[in-house]
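Notes for week 9. Today we move from apo structures to complexes. The key idea is that a small molecule is not decoration. When we ask for a structure prediction with nicotinamide-adenine-dinucleotide present, the ligand SMILES becomes part of the input, just like the chain. The input block below holds both the sequence and the ligand string. Read it once before you look at the output, and try to guess where the molecule might sit.
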Amino acid sequence: MVNGAGAYQVFSDRLAVPDVAEEPLLSGAVRSDWYPVHITVDESEALERLADEVGDRRVALISDDTVHALHAHRLAGALADRGIAVSTTTFPAGEASKSMATAARLLDWLASGAVRRRDVVVAMGGGVVVDTVGWVASVYMRGVPYINVPTTLLADVDAALGGKVAVDHHTAKNLIGAFYQPKAVVTNIGYIDTLDDRQLRSGLAEAVKKGIISSPELFELTERSHARILAREPEALRRLVHAATSVKCRLVERDPYERDLARPLNLGHTVGHALETVTGYGPVLHGEAVAVGIVAAALTSERRGLLPTDGLERMVGLLRDIGLPISLSQLPVDVAVEDLIGALEQIRKIRDGSLRFVLPTALGEVVIADDVSTDEIRAAVSARIGEFAGSLR
Ligand SMILES: NC(=O)c1ccc[n+]([C@@H]2O[C@H](COP(=O)([O-])OP(=O)(O)OC[C@H]3O[C@@H](n4cnc5c(N)ncnc54)[C@H](O)[C@@H]3O)[C@@H](O)[C@H]2O)c1
Ligand SMILES: [Zn+2]
């Protein structure tokens, strides 16, 4: 339809009005989100993919101080050189920044003009950055698009994928969050060059976890190639990131909104989260806490007769060979067993009185138990590696 000044956009509708009835009216909202995960090997390739995903939008690029100084300032410059309008901001590196205070500051920054609804937020960094920025993007204007550019191995193979976004609360990790999928993920394994060895090992823990719960192939790939990955051989890194990304995406697709509380992906995370909480989020890296948690779960499983001893040795042996802590005594800070048990009891309270433990029974197979006793947990976390059978004795 045309008037003097231009064209009208016409909407016409003929909705029926049903008779009043006893049954409730139903309201539905079905959504399905698909996004590409580009795994690139250097920054120029990453830039190409990112620029394609951004198109003609403006970019609000958010990273932490460390990532900004190492990589984000350069990426921002390269986007600007391509004629893309970029504004940047940063926050201090580290888990302590994964907070409501940081989120509030970022929301103020976005509201001050960095982003309009059609623009795009780019989260560049490790798990702390992608979790915090993803949550901010999910609430700002009820959701603006965001693209993850992970820079740690842990974020490459885990945190940047799956749309679980959150900040921590002092009472529990990830307490304030949402499910909000990115528009795209652009991974560049080249960023791992500047990552320190300890962080690299921490990232490998999440790859080992996924191998144990769902992919003997990924587990074997990690067994074969961890030394080359720790030496940062690009081809080994690329294969591992590709394999672990694919496994994570397949796992998340089965239940993207975590309707089922029995989640194999939580292997090692019940004890792991409690460990991070009692040590005050920082001194023990997420992957290190998860490694100790995996060992506790595998040991409990073996003691229940669910996991053969050689299976236990293989799982614990791989974590040990990577150089991850496999017992409380190997952590960089002292952790009293009873403090850890106390933190687990706190988690039990938040979760309706039951703690679900993912217990591995073979490579690619787990059971989920809600009857693991405090004594079993105490025994598993205080076990000395010398008590393990066979080669670990
Ligand atoms: N959303 C999820 O599904 C999911 C999954 C796993 C973990 N997580 C979360 O991820 C977080 C841990 O992530 P992380 O281990 O990446 O930690 P992180 O984001 O704190 O990064 C670790 C450190 O490395 C620095 N860094 C990042 N990239 C670097 C690079 N290329 N070179 C040098 N230094 C670099 C950072 O500044 C930081 O100091 C935890 O909060 C955890 O809960 C989320
Ligand atoms: Zn994790």
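The domain at 37-194 is CATH 3.40.50.1970 (Rossmann fold).
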